Structures are given as structure tokens and as C-alpha cells.
Amino acid sequence: MQRNSRATISQTGLPESKNTFDFSPESGAQSKRAPSNIFKPILLLDLDNTLTDTRAWFADFILASTAELASAFAADTSVVNDQFAEVASTTTLHEYAYIVEAIASKLRIQRTLSFEKIEMISEQFWQRFDQAHRKIELYDGVIETLKRIRVRYESLEIIILTDSPEWVALQRLSLTGLLPLVDGVVAIRTEEPALKHKGYQRCITAARQRVERAMSKIQTEHLALNLAIPASFAKPSSAGIELIINRLGAMPGQVIICGDKDSKEGKAAAQWRMQEAKQGKKDNPIHFVRANYGNHDLHHPRYRELGEHISSLKISAKNGAPELVSNSIERFEHLQSSLSEILERTGSEFAAVHKLGSLVAYRANGLFNGLTDKRSLEQNAIARPVTAMLSTR
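The structure corresponding to this sequence follows.
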């Protein structure tokens, strides 16, 4: 893994000293902060079931894989599935790089199998994952739509904000050809488990090296943001949104988040609005675009079966309503028209306010310097009603 091209964020939101790099411009880091006077529109995209049809792929992979894992451990499949759900709930990750080691430790498999054997079982599990991962599919029109959006809105920053682990997200984006089309990836950091038996350290090291080898093959030099954040920052927390906006800068009112879940992207957007409102920034909203197509097959028998076997993957009956949905789209291609509507409307509003503010500033500057020429008087005459307009808002 290229340690100097990746950043991790601590629980406090500050870069950690271990396996991190300085965020200063001269460090060559891929996390860049925009100058305070430069604002760009930002599009935050969820990855799973918004860009990729992850649910269908994962349902096919996970039940077969946990059954094989149970066979290798000589354990009941239901017991392994329960442990899988517990680890996933604790880490918030269903593609946890140390899932085999964590389950083995919980079931005390080291009593019947050597650590070398556990390491081999883990390697086989992730080999199956790699083979299956290559079959993951994009929703129709994703590549073409993103290309059109990039051409039309050259200043738009497209950032992936996902609750998948960082290494899986980058691999998924690379496998599907999406990585060159985005400007940043913000995903969940993979923490190593604190397993009691010291013999597992060899297995943990092997698993970490496997992830590092996979990451070293992915080209990320073009990314403006490439961050791994704590699980506590996962959606529906708005911490990830705040982090991205603080790093890149954003034009007021021109932040859009698109995802399939009201309970995640919708709530994260709602939390961001509340925080901004508390700070008196009511004119700096975030727009939630719901990807309805990502939920079209929620009640497919295959997914119901998955939830019955692995409780952490059970589909909730309640999705939760966000405070505001700017648009709902039935196909990813519809995102372009939603973007056009939001960016053009909010761009015009921002330009109008910015123009009014400039006129007021010009008038104040002219009066301060005692300007009395005809041109200054004309500008002052224009600015007076502007001041009155602002004072009544």
C-alpha cells in the first residue's frame, strides 16, 4: 500500500500520527484544501446500490461463502452467520478484512485448527471474494452519465462518500471503471481487531499484507481526496459531509448528495442542515437526491433469505423520512437533469447575493475614502436601495 498517498482520520477528525501523512501542500498528499476564496459545487455520491448493484452481487457471494467457512471450521452454518452479523455490526463493515480471524477467535477455532490452517482458510475466503467481486455490475448509464456531467460542469467536484471499507471501495471503483471519473473517495477505515490470543497476530499480518498488495495495484494519484474515516463518521452521521466540505470548499447551496437510503444519505443531509442552521447559515443548504432505483428489488426472495440467515443484513421495514428530498430519480441517467436544475437555480441565487454584497462593499469603501466624483455618486445612488433591501431580509 502506498502509505504516502492515503490519509486516515481519527475520532476527533484530526490526522493520526500512525500511517498518515501531513496535509500541507508541499507534502504531496492527495488530500487538498481549497483556498478560502475558491468555491466549487460538490456532488457526493453513494457507491453501493447507487452506482453499483451491490446487493445482488453480495447476496450471491456471502451465503455460499459463510457456508464454506462453517465447513472449514467444522461449525454450524447458523453459528458462523450469527458471528458474521455480530462482527459486521461492531465494525459497521460487512466486507471486513479480518472477518475470518475475528470469527475464528470468537469460536475459539485455534483449539482444533492451527493458526497456519486458519490463515489458509482466510486466504481462500478472500480469493473467492476477489473472483466474485469482478462480477459486480453498474446500473445502466452510470459511466455515460458521469462523463456527460464532467463535460458540462467542469468545476464540479465528484466525491464518493461510502460506508464500505476504504480498500473495497477503491477496488470496486477500479474494477468498474469509475475511479478515473471521480475526484475523491471517502470511505470507512479498516481497524485491526484486538484478538486475545497472540497466535492470531500472524493471521492479522497476512491479512493486512493481502489488502496492501491489492491497494498497491490501484491508481489513485488523480484524487483530490482519498480519506479513510472512523466508523463513527459513517452515514447517517453528517461528519463525512462536513469533512469533505471543509477540505474542498463548497459554493453555498451547491452541495448535492445522491444515494438510495433515506435512513443514511437522507438523514446525513438533514443533520447537516440542522448544524448549519444552528450556526446561522440557513442559506447554505444541501440537496438530497434519492436514487429510487437502488431500492427496486429490496423484497426479492433472495434478499429476504439473506436477512433471515444474517441478521445484520435484514432489510428494515422503516426507511425513515428525511427533512427534504430535492429530487427522486428512477434511473441514474436522470441525475444529470436534477443537477442542472439544482446548480443553475442555486448558482443564480448565489450570484445575485454576491453582486448585492459587492455593491454594498463598493459603497462603503467609496464613503470611507471620501470619494465625491460623479462616478462614485452614481454608484452610491445604486447602492442605497441595495442596502435597504439587505436590511429588510
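The radius of gyration is 25 Å.
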